[in-house]
Write a structure and sequence with these properties.
By secondary structure, this protein is of the alpha/beta class. It is about 45% helix and about 15% strand.
Length: about 375
Amino acid sequence: MSDDLHIESLLSGGAGAGLERALPSAVDRNWAAQALALIETDQRRSADTHLLHFDVPALSGLSIYLKDESTHPTGSLKHRLARSLFLYGICNGRVRGDTPIVEASSGSTAVSEAYFARLLGLPFYAVMPASTSREKIEAIERQGGHCHLMQHPAQIYAEAAALAERLKGVYLDQFTFAERATDWRGNNNIAESIFQQMSGEPHAVPAVIVMSAGTGGTTATIGRYIRYRRYSTRLCVVDVENSVFFDAYRHGDREVTGERPSRIEGIGRPRVEPSFLSEVIDEMIRIPDAASLAAMRVLSHRLGRKVGGSTGTNFFGLCLVAARMLRAGERGSLVTLICDGGDRYLQSYYNDEWIAAQGLELAPYERCIESFLSGDPCD
């Protein structure tokens, strides 16, 4: 009997029952291929973000660099995370051509995810604290997204999951998937980009990278990459008031929780997020909110453009590390991030009435930072 006749006999008998049906539709696979191509094309249109040399002659022997993530199409570091989360969802088969997208966010991630949802023609819903700046809400809505505001920030997780279920959509859940959605070994992640751009500098391998944590995904990526590439760089993570990351790191307790939201949008959390990996962090420093916002204003003045509050946290932490290195007679380079621009915070961080209402006094910190950058001692 020929092979063809044998196959036909199998198809007509019990052993081949059902095999005569057509192969399953490849509609979802075709959409995924088109969606991935759109995201790849969009990425090619955007050059890598700049690494700025922040010249401070008074800090002799130290070179300061600022990785400017505010130049992404959606204006913040979270553009990288949003792209990774969509790629992760599409390649895992969760995000399809008719999938409503839901996220829990304090703003910047939602702005970036709304951008990618619009690119792919998908509806987007952001579940956010009611305290989120009006500028961020408007940015999400300009991308076609819908905002659900919650009075209690701790409720955003459960509400995002419930909303996704009601819509038969997908909750991207940045706080859980940030550390695994990003390819920490390379693929132009934030860490690889920093080290490649530093390769021709006098101190090519940074002594310290200073970074704040929101989801924990960026610090996980940087910390893993440093170890993977066997660099001597130390990772210093700065935390803010009303955040539990610092306490979790110091006490080794991932169950610690807080009652109040972070005043510095985008960083600090009332719970230890799954993506926060304390094991890849070399040290943590808690920064007062007044110091963060004072550093934000000082840096904005020196750059000639406004930066956001989390950038102020990063920069104040960098100044603390720089002061310690100077006292120890150490030389080298330090890197931190400009996470986003300041135009999203005109009604809050750049509004003196808002600052006064928060009971914050920025002037002493501003004077101290300016003195340090000018080479004068400051206690």
